[in-house]
Amino acid sequence: MKVLYVTSEALPYAASGGLGDVAGSLPQAIRQRLVGCRIVMPLYEDIPEELRENFKFITSISVPVSWRRQYCGIYEARHNGIIYYLLDNQYYFRRHGLYGHYDDAERFAFLSRAALEIIEHIDFRPDIIHCNDWQTALVPIYYRLMYSDREGYENIKTLFTIHNIQYQGIYGMEILEDVFGIYPSARGLVEFDGSINLMKGAIESTDWISTVSPTYAEEILDPWFAHGLDGILRNHSDKLSGILNGIDTINYDPEHDPLIYKNYSKSDYSGKADNKKALQERFGLPIKPDVPLIAMVTRLVAHKGLDLVQCVFEEILENDVQFVLLGAGDWAYENFFKEMKEKYPEKFSVVLGFIPELAHKIYAGADIFLMPSKSEPCGLAQMVSLRYGTIPIVRETGGLKDSVTDCGDGSGNGFTFKSYNAHDMLNAVRRAIALYDDKEQWDILIRRALDCDFSWGRSANEYIKLYRMLTKI
């Protein structure tokens, strides 16, 4: 079985968020299970020069983009055993930044057509084309409309993964033919609420839809989470499933992580105390080994639950705790946390921005990790915190619900709350603080956290089952 994994970003070459992490890890785990898997992505200007040294030019082809034909250079690279096809077009991709350009519709229409066109020019005929988010949503649409009966393309199955349903690829109907090359007779496939909606078209066209957690697959059938597409998804719920993402357990490994202050393992995690002390020093807080240190590493935006934190923040600090935060985002939240730092310098400190090495140090040095998201398709930070023996407090939504269970039943790995309510969150924080004072029980909880397995192997096995079901191979 062969899988062509089409994505707008993938590590190590280009990433702006969680999709890049997934695309850099999942195909590798799939290939390790003796399933052929190769990645297709753009050759962006932002790819570092040192990573370009092993690029091998294969050929160039002409790709139809509506009434135009555009140059596409096909480059091959290998990383950790995976073959990447990087598609070159300087007009579309020789610019800084992956997204947010005025012509993103045309740029990713080119990527989607090119991903299909290159199949005739590479030594890899896929059984499955696995597409991701709106940037590659046109792949199953184009396959259905233009390629399914084409010689050499018969019986390829398509899988479309929704990483975040909020971003759907919505454009005016006036570019249907001129940019996307879709005839008016087929407009119903992509038309939704008077506009072109590429995600809607992919949902209609693909053989199967997956999301990044089982709970998120259920949630997006609800108007609260679906950003308008709940009705379409309910019509196609018979081909919808959720598979929880994993994390890179090599990059996030307290035993070998070069970015943390002192390494430690499941068998001996005494070094966690040294990381806590150094983290307190880094943030300018008093060295207090027996006071619980709560942490957040997050974008400062509303859907991450920052309004809940803001509402009861001073009540949290009334407890004998310390709190550190790393993140950037909305001005109002940044300003609030700067004010709290000035008001409570002995208890709270914040670093605005995103500094990967500091994030690792926080995961290793904190005692408690707070993640009260309004919505979270999967979430990785809670899994990373568990990997480092830092106990998460999460709201029961999306992948948070699927990866963290409340320890109140004596078997869970963290603390959870259901309602999107600040005082429900505060109650979970207080329960965690109370248990922290019981050192014996807290040690049991740390060991339970360190035993959690969120490696990509588990996720890869689930995807392979799905591929085999679709292809009957």
Structure description:
This protein has helices at residues 18-31, 49-52, 90-93, 104-117, 138-147, 198-205, 214-219, 223-226, 230-235, 271-282, 306-317, 331-343, 356-365, 381-387, 398-403, 422-436, 439-450, 456-471, and strands spanning 2-6, 36-42, 56-65, 68-79, 82-88, 128-132, 157-162, 170-171, 191-192, 195-197, 208-211, 240-242, 293-300, 322-329, 348-352, 368-371, 391-395, 415-417. It has 18 helices and 18 strands. Helices cover 37% and strands 21% of the residues. The protein folds into 2 domains: 2-246 and 457-471, Rossmann fold (3-Layer(aba) Sandwich), CATH 3.40.50; 271-453, Rossmann fold. A 9-stranded mixed sheet has the order 3-4-5-2-1-6-7-11-12, sandwiched between helices. Helix 1 links the parallel strand 1 and strand 2 (36-42). It has 473 residues and is an alpha/beta fold. The radius of gyration is 23 Å and the shape is elongated. 47% of the residues are buried.
> What gap, in angstroms, lies between the N and C termini?
7 Å
Would you state the CATH class of the largest domain?
Answer: Alpha Beta
Largest sheet: 9 strands, mixed
Helix count from the secondary structure assignment: 18
* CATH H level, superfamily name of the largest domain: Glycogen Phosphorylase B
**Major beta sheet, strand line-up:** 3-4-5-2-1-6-7-11-12
What is the helix fraction of residues, given as a range?
Answer: 25-40%
